[in-house]
Amino acid sequence: MIEPIEQELTEKIKLLSPGTKLRKALDDIIHAQLGALIVFIDEEEFPRYSNILQAGFRIECAFSPERLYELSKMDGAIVMDKNASKILAANVHIVPDPGIPTSETGTRHRTAERLARQLGVMVVAISKRRNVVTLYYKDKKYVFGDINFVLTKVGQTINALERFRESFDRDLELLDKLEIEGSVPLDSVCEILIRGTEIKSISSSIELNIIELGVEGRLSQLRLREVLKDLEELLTLVIMDYSKKDVTEDEAKQILETMMRIDHRVVPFAKALGYDVVNSQQVSDTIVRPRGYRILRNEVHIPMNISQNVIKSFRSIDQLVKTNANVLQRVEGIGDKRAKAILRRLREIKKRRQ
């Protein structure tokens, strides 16, 4: 789950991404080799901070890239409303609390970081010497990279993720065969969960980069969406299949969150599933039987509540394969047609994997 502050920071990054009017103004300032300090504040709150945002000229005009660029030629900071739709003042002298800690060295960036922390607002600093845009918001900092470098980084990462996803899908196909046969080594399950969580983790690491790219990152966003398609659902269902104790979908998601934070090795993952193991050999030697949630949901396409009824009756997918339609249709929610369709599909899978 995304923390509120992280979600807020994401929204601020979107305001400064390529394709927005604000980004055009920042690019113009950079190309002219000008520095700038831009404060975004609630317009109604502006008068309250007269001791911090001192002097300057009240502008009170609608924002445009051209206006912001021209005002950046003046000394002092520019103050805009928090939605970046209005320029409130320019040539403003900023006097933040000097006791607020800062890791920055340059005067402009020290001021920006302290002000963002003190008022809990967004402040953007543009370095005249390095031509770098830095965003400060509350106690967060985000440095915008060179767009070509970010595009290359994102492209290379997604290329790798696509290969990982292909491997993950192949592993699931092999798992189908083992599941129908009713004998699955625990380490095979853990390896699949490890690969899936690695894909999620690496994807998370570039999501902000893609947001930073704005309109330039649309293709990357589509490619990443395809990589992540149904991944979380699949991992959740695998956990429901192989957890030592029968868990609900919400409990499986909590276990998945735990797996995102632990070492990506089979022993910690096996323990997260509830198994008492101490080394990888024990994990490899442990044979488990799947309940069947994943196959019933993704291969047979029946709703979760009916899957739960089926699994409660048969306990494992290999037992379900051995039954007949007359027995299966006794399960609540399973009629004659659905029973025959389920068994036909399961046997097709078994035949396909032989």
UniProtKB/TrEMBL annotation:
Record-listed E.C. numbers: 2.7.7.85
InterPro entries, A to Z: DisA, DisA_sf, DNA_integrity_DisA_N_sf, DNA_integrity_scan_DisA_link, DNA_integrity_scan_DisA_N, RuvA_2-like
Keyword Transferase among record annotations: yes
Keyword Transferase applies: yes
Enzyme class label: transferase
Residue stretches making up the DAC domain: 6-149
Gene Ontology MF: a single term: ATP binding
Keywords recorded for this protein, A-Z: ATP-binding, Nucleotide-binding, Nucleotidyltransferase, Transferase
Pfam family, one: DAC
Catalytic reactions of this protein: 2 ATP = 3',3'-c-di-AMP + 2 diphosphate
Protein name: DNA integrity scanning diadenylate cyclase DisA
